[in-house]
Each structure stands twice: as structure tokens, then as C-alpha cells.
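If your schedule permits, I should be very grateful for your opinion on a structural question. I have a record of one protein: its chain in single-letter code and its fold written as C-alpha cells. Kindly check, if you would, that the fold set down in the C-alpha cells agrees with what the sequence suggests. I remain grateful for any guidance, and I place the record below:

***
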Amino acid sequence: MDRSLVVFKRLMQALPTVFGIVVITFLLTRALPGDPAAFFAGPAATPESIAQIRVQLGLDQPLPVQFGRYLEELARGELGQSMTTGQPVAQELVRRLPASLELTLFALILSLSVAIPLGILAATHQDSWIDQLCRFVVTAGVSLPTFFTGLLLVYVFYFLLGWAPPPLGRLDILSLSPTHITGFYLIDTLIDGDGEAFWSALKQLALPAITLALFTLAPLARMTRAAMLQSLSSDYVRTARACGLSHSKVLRTYALRNALLPVITTLGMVFSFSLGANVLVEKVFSWPGIGSFAIEALIASDYAAVQGFVLAMALLFVALNLFVDLLYTFVDPRVKIDG
């Protein structure tokens, strides 16, 4: 089947899921405690002014009417206007999404650079100190909450040692934001040729990325170790060894390539989980991403902002799952994605 047709088919299959998420999010936001009209009116507002704001926001209408209006806005590509910032939700998400993606992708690169070699070494040196180290890292990564890890890293590397900058955003107060090209500060500062701003962005990114990488490292290392153990005990690896192939060629060509498929599956799930964990990490490090935006919206019962955030996450997950399915065919051409 043509690859573009497969992509279109998968997108069509994802539409019912996305619509279900839209419905559930709409209902759950209305069930949140607090009144957005009261928050918007302020603490000194009278019941009459609050009621007037509810009419202006359309919150006095029945839920089916509100939902129908929300679907009409979605059909026009509009996500509503955020009450907390006064800006369109779509504009806020587009502005903040690169910060969250830069943090997540950088953390995943750090995580993969440690987890895959550690998992391979643990599988090839069973019950050695490397294997014990892998188990310790996996246990610690699963047990420690991301907000606790972030606060601990801030306390040690900023407060005690003074090696890290203050956890106050993407740049220090002395650096200017680069020209917006990709929204990724590490890339935009290099395009601008501003070495000082690049170094500042890298230092600000280090601690939150390490915090998120410790969270994602555990499942990746565990899956790499398990997949490599299964692959190393298979018949085709024993046959390759019996043919006199070198140890490195057996590991790289036969064992690792066949062990990558479950690792890729885990990577897709980990990426999804890390986008959710971003909410806590961004709050700890004052990172101006969509996670911070979502928390502020939840506190204020900002319906449009919360719905826009959840919808953006759902679309990201759909795109990620499709990317993982396509990646399977490059790792192992025997895998078919049209099944």
C-alpha cells in the first residue's frame, strides 16, 4: 500500500479518538471547581457583575449549546480566547510549544545516549556491577517523582554548589531572546551567531532536561536490556556466532537491530509520558512552555485554554504514534504498517 495512503488511513482512524477526547475534555472542564466568571470579575465583584460576565462568556447557556458553539469554533480552526492571558489560545500554544518541545527532545536525546548503551552493557554483562547499576538507575528513575528530582537538582547544583544558573526560564536576565525562526533557542541562537546567548540557553536547559531525562531513562534502559537479552539468546544470534562473526558485528547487526523494535515502541510511550511530566518540570524551573500555561489555566478554570492544551496534546500523540509506525518500516522492512 502507498505510504501516503497509509498515513491518510491512520489519520482517519484517529479522528474518533480525537473527537472523544474533545467531548470528555469539554465535560471535565465544566466539572472543575470554581467559576471562571468569578475569577475574571475579581474578588470585589458583585453577583450581578459575575452574572453579566457569565452571559458575555456564554456560560449561562445549556451544555449542548456551549458544546455546539465550541465545535463550530474548532471547525473554523479557533480554540477560543484565554481569560488568563487575554490572547487567543491557538496563538499562546504556538508561542509556547517550541519551549516544551525543545525541553522534551533534548531530554530524550540525553536519555537515549545513556539508556541504550547502559541497557546493552547490562545485557552483555549479566549480574555484573554494570547490570546492578542499570537496575539501580531503573529503580531510582521509576521511584522518584519529577518535581522532587527537579527540586533536589536545584538545591544541590544551584543553591549549594552554585554551578547552575537560577531556574528562571530559558535565558538569564542579561541575554536577549534570539530572532524567532524555529522557536528552539539552541538553534535560533546558533543561526544568529550569538555564542553567549547559546551558552546561556544551554545552561538554563541543563537542569530541567536532566530532570526529565532521569524520568525517561528508566523505561528505556529496562526495555533495552530485556530486548537485548531475548535477542542474544535467539537462534539466529547463535548461528551468527557459530559462523565465526566477530562479537561486535553480532551485537550490532543481528542482536541490536532486532532489539530496536520494542525500544522504539517504548520510546513512543516515553515521549508521550514526558510531555505530561513537562507540566511539573516547567513549573519547578519557571519554564514558559505549554505545561505552565495549562497549570495557570486550571487554577483559573480557563475552559478554552484547558481544552486547547488537551487537544494539542491529543494531536501530538496521534502524530507521534504515526511517526513510530513509519519508523518501524525503516528499522525492519518486514514490518507492514497497513495491517
